[in-house]
Amino acid sequence: MSGGGDGTALAGFLDFEPPTEDFREAVLQGLAERQKRIPAKFFYDDRGSRLFDRICEQPEYYPTRAELEILENERERLRALLPAEASVIEFGAGAAQKIRLLVEALVTPRCYVPIDISRQFLLHSAEGFARDHPELPTAAVCADFTLAVDLDPVVPEGPRVGFFPGSTIGNLTPDEAVGFLKSAARTLGEGGFLVVGVDLRKDPARLEAAYDDAAGVTAAFNLNLLRRINRELGGGFELDGFAHKALYDRDEGRIEMHLESLREQRVRIAGETFAFARGETIHTENSYKYELDGFQALAKRGGFRPALALTDAESLFSVHVLAVA
Ligand SMILES: C[S@@+](CC[C@H](N)C(=O)[O-])C[C@H]1O[C@@H](n2cnc3c(N)ncnc32)[C@H](O)[C@@H]1O
Questions:
Q1: Are residue 239 and residue 319 in the same domain, yes or no?
Q2: In this structure, are 248 and 275 located in the same domain?
Q3: Helix or strand (DSSP H, E) at 43
Q4: Distance CA 280, CA 215 (A)
Q5: In this structure, are 147 and 262 located in the same domain?
Q6: pLDDT by residue (tens digit) across 67-123?
Q7: Whole-angstrom Cα distance, residue 279 to residue 260?
Q8: Which phi and psi (to 5°) does residue 135 adopt?
Q9: Which residues sit opposite 243 in a β-bridge?
């Protein structure tokens, strides 16, 4: 752990950044499957994180505005339910914007610990938060939140509140989400709570528009994965050979993002060659959508007791407060 006094505003930094080897392995394995696929967590290099921030500003991308509306309007109910003097742990913190509203709702929080896989972006946003909240010790953790991380070096004794906004839980399959919740319940411990943002099922046209904005920012975000493979793994993708696709699968209740090969082509990556037929896709992201009770049932399987479910005025998005069971 590096502490304060090194020129940053942070009280500490734990660095468990996944090695490039993990990325190489996931890409080589995923592209060898019949339905080629790469896990969504690899979108987030620094450029990917900055593109995601721009997605949040697009008129079609309602989730960010709807979640902010809930956090803004429901401070009193959140304050009444969540423990005072809690250590706040955020999973997949990104730009660390929504946490500002949650922290305002809490009674004398003790510290803020953002966790994210995107190291440079995490440090930048955590330092920004720390400078704006000098009264609240902030320690950043670069890690894959699907793996257990020992937070004891940066989180004091006492109640813990987890925060998992942005519908990031929707990027996990329901079984993966249950696995994540079980691990989060252990991290948060007895008396702990998790505040989690979950996108709701709705008109497929509205969903598909949110994942295929007219300005092409989500397309650039999706294609950035190929750019990252080229840069970090010495890949040979020609970016104009692939197109962004986002489709809602009603049966699965999820948006799928793919990169579609626009021609027959062969691509060299880390000494291996992968053939793409015209129209063949790489599946790059799932984004599961839930009904309120469907998510609560999932939360119970993950070791939590649903305590409160909040929605925005249009019922586009939900924020659940879950207590460790
Ligand atoms: C959909 S964005 C949400 C960002 C922000 N929380 C928000 O609500 O706008 C997902 C965030 O989680 C991070 N992330 C994705 N998968 C992760 C993983 N397995 N471990 C740690 N961070 C992850 C990304 O870097 C990104 O910042």
A1: no
A2: yes
A3: none
A4: 24
A5: no
A6: 999 999 999 999 999 999 999 999 999 999 999 999 999 999 999 999 999 999 999
A7: 6
A8: -80, -15
A9: 260
Q: Is the CB of 218 under 6 A from ligand 1?
A: no
**Confidence class of residue 38 from pLDDT cuts 50, 70 and 90?**
very high
Share of the chain above pLDDT 90, in %: 97
Q: Are residues 70 and 142 in the same domain?
A: yes
* Whether 30 and 86 share a structural domain: no
- Residue 95 and residue 198 in one domain: yes
How close is the Cα of 271 to the center of ligand 1, in Å?
A: 30
Q: CA–CA separation, 298 vs 254, rounded Å?
A: 15
Q: Taking 80 as the threshold, does the pLDDT of residue 3 lie above it?
A: no
Best probe residue, ligand 1, of 17, 41, 67, 68 (max atoms within 8 Å of C-beta): 41
* Gap from CA of 180 to ligand 1 centroid (Å): 13
Q: Is the pTM of this model over 0.90?
A: yes
- Ligand 1 atom nearest 165 alpha carbon: 8
Claim to verify: residue 51 and residue 66 sit in the same structural domain? no
Residue 8: pLDDT band (50, 70, 90) is confident
Pocket perturbation via mutation, ligand 1, pick of 23, 88, 116 by most ligand atoms within 8 A of CB: 116
From atom 9 of ligand 1, which residue's Cα is the shortest distance away? 166
The CA distances from residue 217 to 54, 125, 192, in Å, are 7, 21, 37
Shared domain check, 313 and 271: no
The per-residue pLDDT for range 214-259, each reduced to its tens digit, is 999 999 999 999 999 999 999 999 999 999 999 999 999 999 999 9
CA–CA separation, 174 vs 298, rounded Å?
7
Q: Could you list the residue range(s) of the whole structural domain that residue 193 is in?
A: 2-17+62-202+291-324
- For ligand 1, atom 17, name the residue with the nearest CA: 41
Q: Which of 79, 84, 93, 183 is nearest to 129 (CA)?
A: 93
